[in-house]
Amino acid sequence: MIQQRQNFDWMLRDLYNSAPGIEMIVVLSADGLRIARYGGDPDAADRVAAACAGMQSLVTAVADEIPATDGEMKLVLVELNGGYFYLMAAGANAYLAVLSDMVCEPGLMSHYMRDLVVRIGAHLTSPPRRNGQSV
């Protein structure tokens, strides 16, 4: 896992430098564990990862009520006073979260995020866990 985190540095830095206004980028597993981060402090990234797991679960539950969908989350966008929160499916059991200020237009940010996921989606995966261990 350590090697994987080191490999994420340049990938996340590329997104950070491409899109203006990013405060923090977090790659997380479906169960809310931080895999990697860029920007922000580690404790904040851990809190964001945990919150994202809850958000992903909520979105999946709501999607089940829309008959025309397959129930899989693609992108969540939350506009806040002064910023945005983005959460995107990024691979098997993995998600990409971005916190930004109001500078970057949401459509552009989601485009940058999707490009990153397409380029490195195979690396943005997290194996299922049982009792805290990868299976």
Automatic annotation (TrEMBL):
Task: Give a Pfam family name.
Answer: Robl_LC7
Signal sequence region: none
- Give the Roadblock/LAMTOR2 domain ranges: 9-100
Q: What InterPro entries does its record include?
A: Mycobact_SerProt_Inhib_Rv3364c (IPR053141), Roadblock/LAMTOR2_dom (IPR004942)
What is the protein name stated in its UniProt record? Roadblock/LC7 domain-containing protein
Species classification: Bacteria, Bacillati, Actinomycetota, Actinomycetes, Kitasatosporales
